[in-house]
UniProtKB/TrEMBL annotation:
PANTHER family: HYALURONAN-BINDING PROTEIN 2, TRYPSIN-RELATED. Keywords: Hydrolase, Protease, Serine protease. It holds the Pfam family Trypsin. GO terms for biological process: proteolysis. One of its GO terms (molecular function) is serine-type endopeptidase activity. The keyword NAD does not apply. One of its GO terms (cellular component) is extracellular space. Residues 5-93 form the Peptidase S1 domain. This is HABP2 protein. Gene3D superfamilies: Trypsin-like serine proteases.
C-alpha cells in the first residue's frame, strides 16, 4: 500500500455509491498486515489485516441492526486453537 493513501472503513453500508442513514465511516489509523502476506503472479497469499480505527465521538462502532461488533479478546489463545473470522471476498483464485 502507498503510505500516503488514506483508508476509510465503511460499516453498515450496502451501496458504496450513495450515503446511507445507517452507515458508520471511520479512518484507519493503523494497518497490521499478516506477517506472511505476499503477492505472486497475481495471487494474494495471507491477504488479511487488522485495522485500527480512529474513534468518532469516543467510539469506533455502534452496534446496530446493520453493524455487529467483533471484539478482540484480552487474553492469548494457545497456538493451534481453532477460531472463526468474518468478512467477504474471493475464496478461490481464477
Amino acid at each position: 500500500r502507498n503510505p500516503g493513501t488514506k483508508i476509510q472503513v465503511a460499516l453498515g453500508k450496502q451501496n458504496l455509491q450513495k450515503k446511507e442513514d445507517h452507515e458508520q465511516i471511520f479512518d484507519a489509523v493503523q494497518i497490521i498486515l499478516h506477517g506472511k502476506y505476499k503477492e505472486k503472479d497475481g495471487v494474494l497469499y495471507n491477504d488479511i489485516a487488522l485495522l485500527k480505527l480512529q474513534p468518532v465521538d469516543g467510539h469506533c462502532a455502534v452496534e446496530t441492526k446493520y453493524v455487529k461488533i467483533a471484539c478482540l479478546p484480552d487474553f492469548f489463545l494457545p497456538v493451534g486453537t481453532s477460531c472463526f473470522i468474518s468478512g467477504w471476498g474471493e475464496t478461490e483464485t481464477g
